[in-house]
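**Protein fold record**
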Amino acid sequence: MEYLQFGCQVLLGGVFAVSAGSKLYTRTAFADFAAATARLTGAGTGRARQLAVGVVATEIAVVLALIVPALVLWGFAVGIGLLAVFSAAIVRSLRRGQRAPCRCFGASNSPLGVQHVARNAALAAFGAFGIASGLSGRTSSLDFGLACVVAFAALVGVALTARLDDLIGLFRTTTATSQLGKQQ
């Protein structure tokens, strides 16, 4: 159970770290995220900027909480809550017929879709697994070698999560190209 919790810590902490870092990487990146926040929420420019600052601050708080042993369960809980808010905003936007890019991980131009809600649900499930394993009460020291394997697997999950839009675009292009080839 400890390895599961550790893997979930690395996965969620890594995802939120990449997400916050991609929004703060440049002034333009943050401005693009604030504009996307305005489109998603319908808030005015000033209010959207405040919401964007709040989102990035919460993402950083989740990362820090997942590092500090006494705060790990709170980090998972706040992370799940943040993912729920993101999913609600995406669903609301899709119901209004808006498929603007979310800028979740920087400069992606992929339109919002159900895949983003599914991604958030999967990440929230890992957060729930982290809480469940943390509440199991069993503690012992982690074997360094196994911890490295778990961390590597979690970091692969972080990379796949951050590049989800590119992976989906790659398969859509391949599928469209192969269907076009069959028609000719």
About this structure: Residues 1-181 form one domain. The helical segments are 2-24, 27-41, 45-67, 72-95, 114-135, 144-162, 164-183. The mean pLDDT is 88.
